[in-house]
Amino acid sequence: MTITGLEHLQISAPRNGADRVRQFYGDLLDLVEIDPPDGLAGREGIWYSVGAVPLHVAFEGYGFGNEPRFLALTVDDLDLVFEALRQKIAPIDKSNDEQGNLTRIKFNDPFGNHLELTLTPAGALDELAATHAVEAYLTRAEALASFAVPAGEAESVSFSPDGRYLAAGAVVSDEREAAPTVTVWDLTKGGEPEVQVEMASSVWELAFSPTGKELVALSQDGSVETWRTSDWESEGFAEHAGDSSGLAYTAGGQLVAVGSGDVVHVYRPTLDQFLTVRPRLGQIESVAFDHEGTLAVIGEANRIQLWTLQPAQRSSYELLGFDSSVGALAFCPGQPVLAGLSEEGRILLWDMYTAPEDPTSLDDDSSFDAFAFSPRGDVLAAASGSTVRLFDWRRAEPIETSFDASGLVLSLKFSPDGRSLAVGSDDGRVQIWKVR
Q1: Are residues 56 and 172 in the same domain?
Q2: Domain CATH code at residue 177
Q3: CB under 8 Å to 68, separation ≥6 — which residues?
Q4: What's the CA gap between 22 and 30, in Å, rounded?
Q5: Is residue 106 located within the same domain as residue 188?
Q6: Residue 66: pLDDT band by 50, 70, 90 thresholds?
Q7: Residues 106 and 125 in one domain
């Protein structure tokens, strides 16, 4: 028997609680309400998309054994599983279709938890989640706000985890004529910057920590600096090789990785040195962490290595399937999918489990300059010139949402709630667009 996946989750709510369910899961948790999956339409309640897995909020008094909380798993051979389990589990219930084919079996584990097993076609759940998730996005994006760095280009942008602050790092052509800056705006106030820091060198990358307690910036001269968000005082500084690139936090904010020449330095908060990763890939181009803390590293050698950090150990396989340099990496939130932007402007997507050597291309007919995943992982925003489009990345198809920024787009970042998108451009402007 092989369990191949999770078909859906079911939890319960009071029978008269539909409004409260929608207020909590729809409004507060921002989940997308969907139609029931095929074959489950008769089950009353409210359905939501949680990544690729449907969540069924059933009303009390409904369900097998009058207990509506359960897991529904998929298996590769349902008939074989049923024959094996019915000899060892009692009671065990089953459902058949009109042709008599077994479609679902139901039973309790030894601890009273209810389980269901079914046979689901490969890819059906991904298609379901993708179809319903993209329906929530606006056909026409709305411009909400516009800011500007004091000089140069808005090379990088980042939101604080609570959505209160927006930060931008500037690149200038001549640092003797105008100083590059890190600028932070308080979006609850608008208008003038909350803080503006003049930097010795152009700012290539910056990010808020997932805890919201610090902001970190990586500059062209290789320097890295962090600031406390409570008072915006500098609290950490480190020097690295010039022209270093690559900056990423773990999902919990416990560690931050910084590319430095041909190595990656990993720090705890306030730039407390943790360890150094030596990938032997040449000059580091980009780094990224997945939701489980795996570090992806790309260098001049045009291979992507995967590392675990506690202890530091390189994975036995690499991500391949590309011939040119990849200058940016990002994991899809909650998914084993890594995206990279090649020097030709292609966005490549690797499924780390099923196709580590065979990436798919988002759109072979376009050349992109920047990209970003939404926090829910349902769509990917990609910029080509001044035009920004949203893509259903699972299908490699654009959805109807698109807009034109004020200049050539250099950076993109979704707000934490996924409803808006910050766009940094070569004219120095940082615009916020409502997309959902």
Answers
A1: no
A2: 2.130.10.10
A3: 10, 11, 12, 58, 59, 60, 62
A4: 9
A5: no
A6: very low
A7: yes
3-state DSSP helix/strand/coil percent for the chain, to nearest 5? Answer: 10, 50, 45
How many whole angstroms separate alpha carbon 341 and alpha carbon 339? Answer: 7
Residues of the chain above pLDDT 70, percent: 89
Q: Give the integer Cα–Cα distance in Å for 140 and 247.
A: 32
CA distance 402 to 382: 10
Rounded to whole angstroms, the Cα distance separating 115 from 112 reads: 9
For residue range 135-187, list pLDDT tens digits in order: 578 888 999 999 999 999 999 999 999 999 999 999 999 988 999 999 999 99
> CA torsion, points 192, 198, 202, 208, in degrees to nearest 10?
-60
Q: Which residue has the tokens 């787009």?
A: 409
The reply to whether 131 and 164 lie within a common domain is no
Domain boundary among 136, 168, 202: 136
Q: Which domain holds residue 387?
A: 142-434
Residues 15 and 152 in one domain: no
Write down which residue in 78, 108, 136 finishes a domain: 136
All residues at 6 or more sequence positions from 107 whose CB lies less than 8 Å from its CB, including other chains = 85, 89, 91, 92, 93, 114, 115
- Helical spans, DSSP H, in 86-210: 124-133
User: Whole-prediction pTM value?
Assistant: 0.72
Dist. CA 57–CA 89, nearest whole Å: 27
Q: How many domains does the chain have?
A: 2
Closest C-alpha among 326, 434, 313, 339 to residue 396 = 339
Give the integer Cα–Cα distance in Å for 245 and 288: 12
Q: Are 416 and 163 in contact (CB under 8 A)?
A: yes
For residue 381, the one-letter residue type is: A
